[in-house]
Amino acid sequence: MQERHLFEYAVLRIVPRVEREEFLNAGVLVYCQKKKFLQVKIQLPESRIKALCETADLDEIKRHFHSFELVCK
Q1: Whole-number Å distance between alpha carbons of 13 and 10
Q2: Which of 52, 59, 62, 66 is the most buried (most CB within 10 A)?
């Protein structure tokens, strides 16, 4: 019989303009304490970000999301 493990996750979102209450899902972070597992998968929808906010700084957004990858390593 396989051992059961609790995996928890958090959806990573981009909120270009809070006042409009719009967001885009850009990744997921998965964690399991028992297996000492922490991993993130990110896919930035650049054209959709620009569609919601033309002035969005994509380089800054990429830097922020890259920090999640560094923490997981």
Answers
A1: 9
A2: 52
Give φ, ψ of 57 to 5 degrees: -90, 95
Rounded distance, CA 63 to CA 66, Å? Answer: 5
Tens-digit pLDDT profile for residues 49-72:
999 999 999 999 999 999 999 999
Rounded to whole angstroms, the Cα distance separating 15 from 52 reads 9
Task: Say what the pLDDT of residue 1 is.
Answer: 64
Q: What tokens does 63 get? A: 């830097």
- Diameter of the chain by CA atoms? 53
Question: What's the N-to-C CA distance of the chain in angstroms?
Answer: 31
SS3 track for 2-33: CCCCCCEEEEEEECCCHHHCCCEEEEEEEEEC
